Amino acid sequence: MQRLVVVAAVAALATAGCSQSDTVAVTGTVTFNGQPAGQAEVMFNPKKGRLATGVTDASGHFSLSTAKPGDGAAPGEYVVTLAEYYPPDKPPALPRGGGLLPSRFPSKYADPAKSPLTATVERGKKNDFQFDVNP
């Protein structure tokens, strides 16, 4: 009987660690005027919930993170915004007199209220998005 209790306790602990994650993997590619958009910050702005972000590599590919690197985004609907990515060790020169930092992307892509880019992240689906941005 004591052995049965130990086996049941071990089984309960093992299944407790197997709970479903709140996030799912999200990847994609950003192109600007048909060319890979490297060093772009991609932000998935949720209608509710937490922001997910990623940075494109030289080929325009990104992977999103919410709470830890590469963990993806929570399922739901998002408005996608884009901005220039500046590494923490290489900050850009600030514009004289203040104002916004220069960006290759039109300003509407940086504003969640104006961006035409949207995405629906779904559990159990391949969440790989393609965004082709034009000037």
How would you portray this structure in words?
By secondary structure, this protein is mainly beta. The protein has one domain (23-133): Immunoglobulins (Immunoglobulin-like). It is 11% helix and 30% strand. It is built from one helix and eight strands; from the N terminus they run H-E-E-E-E-E-E-E-E. The protein has one helix at residues 2-16; strands at residues 27-32, 35-36, 40-46, 52-55, 61-63, 76-84, 118-121, 128-133. Strands 1, 2, 5 and 8 form a four-stranded mixed β-sheet that branches. A four-stranded antiparallel β-sheet has the order 4-3-6-7, with no helix packed on it. Strand 3 and strand 4 (52-55) form a beta hairpin. The longest helix has 15 residues, at 2-16. The radius of gyration is 20 Å and the shape is globular. The model is unreliable at 4-17 (pLDDT under 50).
Features:
135 residues, mainly beta, Immunoglobulin-like, four-stranded antiparallel beta sheet, 1 helix, 8 strands, 30% strand
Mean pLDDT over the full residue set: 87
* CATH top level assignment: Mainly Beta
Distance between the ends: 72 Å
Main β-sheet description: 4 strands, mixed
Q: What percentage of amino acids are in beta strands?
A: 25-35%
Tell me the number of structural domains.
1
Low-confidence regions: 4-17
SSE order in H/E notation?
HEEEEEEEE
CATH fold naming? Immunoglobulin-like
